[in-house]
Amino acid sequence: ERLRKLQSLALGEDGAIPLEIRFLHDPSATEGYVGCALRGNVFRFYKRAAGDWAAEKVISVPSKKVEGWMLPEMPSLITDILISLDDRFLYFSNWLHGDIRQYDITDRRNPKLVGQVFLGGSIIRDGPVKVLEDPENQEQPPPCFIKGKRVPGGPQMLQLSLDGRRLYVTTSLFSGWDRQFYPEMIREGSVMMQIDVDSVNGGLSLNQNFLVDFGKEPDGPALAHELRYPGGDCTSDIWL
């Protein structure tokens, strides 16, 4: 059957730059989430009883007032989101702020933050940027080191194991943006890291024994992006 557009959803300014969209894995579910990069928001979209579709904002990561950066306010820049195979947890990366967040989405309309880990980013405490005002009142994080290497850039593409216990992340978004926001990553290459996930109570912790350094490729530093598990992962599998 020929595909045809049935409806468009206008998310407004809060929905600017919707980069990644994820449906729940349950084939009978008629809802999902979309990460909107520029304003740091996640919208839930769902099918209504009347048969049409609607959307509502369910997560918002506020921008931080800063100095020493190119703009007076720094958005989190949500660049990737994914959902665990059991449809219990939603994860996303804030490429500029430098953290990955884990939300319990058992209550689909009211996600609850249950895990967070910082992996570099643009507000590290020994960098040129000073946070003047943060609605979340979080301290500027320290730089991220793994096996003696300082991680350049911020967390970007995500991939989660089918059992929901191992979350992998790379740091390159798009070479033009990498060059603008994280020039050191162009020189050093990107990395891949592993996050250990508490899939029972929620919680994220960096695995200090795992690092893939793409700066050591035979032909020079590389910018790794997409991740896939050979046996299946949480962005390519559904329930059967």
TrEMBL record:
Its EC number is 1.8.3.4. One of its GO terms (biological process) is protein transport. Keywords: Acetylation, Cytoplasm, Membrane, Nucleus, Oxidoreductase, Protein transport, Selenium, Transport. The keyword Membrane applies. The keyword Kinase does not apply. It is found in: Nucleus; Cytoplasm, Cytosol; Membrane. It is a peripheral membrane protein. It is an enzyme of class 1 (oxidoreductase). Coiled coil: none annotated. Pfam families: SBP56 (PF05694). GO terms for molecular function: methanethiol oxidase activity; selenium binding. It comes from the Eukaryota. Pathway: Organosulfur degradation. It catalyses: methanethiol + O2 + H2O = hydrogen sulfide + formaldehyde + H2O2 + H(+). One of its GO terms (cellular component) is membrane. Belongs to the selenium-binding protein family. Catalyzes the oxidation of methanethiol, an organosulfur compound known to be produced in substantial amounts by gut bacteria. Selenium-binding protein which may be involved in the sensing of reactive xenobiotics in the cytoplasm. May be involved in intra-Golgi protein transport. This is Methanethiol oxidase. It comes from Oryzias sinensis. The lineage of its organism: Eukaryota, Metazoa, Chordata, Craniata, Vertebrata.
